[in-house]
From TrEMBL:
Keywords: Transferase. It comes from Thalassococcus halodurans. PANTHER family: MALEYLACETOACETATE ISOMERASE (PTHR42673). One of its GO terms (biological process) is L-phenylalanine catabolic process. It holds the Pfam family GST_N_2. Residues 3-85 form the GST N-terminal domain. This is Glutathione S-transferase. It comes from the Bacteria. The keyword Transferase applies. InterPro entries: Glutathione-S-Trfase_C_sf, Glutathione_S-Trfase_N, Thioredoxin-like_sf. One of its GO terms (molecular function) is maleylacetoacetate isomerase activity.
Amino acid sequence: MTNKLIIGDYAYSSWSLRGWLLFRRFGIPAEVTLLDFFADESVAEQVKAYAPAKTVPIWVTEDGDVLGESIAIAEELATRYPAANLWPADPAARAVARALTAEMHSGFGTLRNDCPMNMRVAYSESPVSDDLKADLARLDFIFGMAREKFGRNGPWLCGEYSIADAFYAPVAARIAGYSLPVNQVTQEYVNAHLNDGAFRRWRAMGMIKGADLPWYARDYPQKPWPGPTPLAAKAVDNGSPENDACPYSGLPVTHLLELDGRIFGFCNDFCRDKTVTDPEAWPQFMALL
């Protein structure tokens, strides 16, 4: 039996992003099932088969155990896959990473409520209440503390990428997406996430998979997404692809994209369209290119 990961909408489900990163960023294999946030059934109804979990993400382990809390998933992954190094090896860095993760799991309620994650849009300005300012000031403080002590040799909080960084990835999406005012250290940390390949792959899928959910929209002025500018690929109907097999599945090609006058093939529209959205996010495609 293989690991199974049940997640919500790529564009909007911040907790699902955390769970997905814990598997993908650390090379832990899992079959992914995507729930429909626009379905008539509630999320709770859709996950009834995975009791006692009641929301996403949900991990069904290789042994059939069910975990439905992100922090429990993180800790159990670290226990069952020690070679993946989900926590920092240094005891002091590990202690800080655990504390930061726990604070994210239970805190920053105003940031979550005022700025729901929406990977499909970015706003050039948004209102910042006093309570939201307090959340942002706390992030500036804890990020600055962690980076000063442990992050001098790379972009992440406590040395190498860890569970703590997976937990703060949706925070980076919110800060970027709502143009929230933060200090230079925090902005540099946000930029590290925006440039991270796994984060970019998640957003690329969110741009083309699932319905637009109006309850996440805000009536603020918009701007382009602040991450790296994607290569100018486009879907095409005709052409002679350079590859015979999809770079992701190995199946015969049926759908095409064009980039710099070159044609590449994929086994379905999802494989093609996620690549069109951000070609450089996908190592398998870049190997072809």
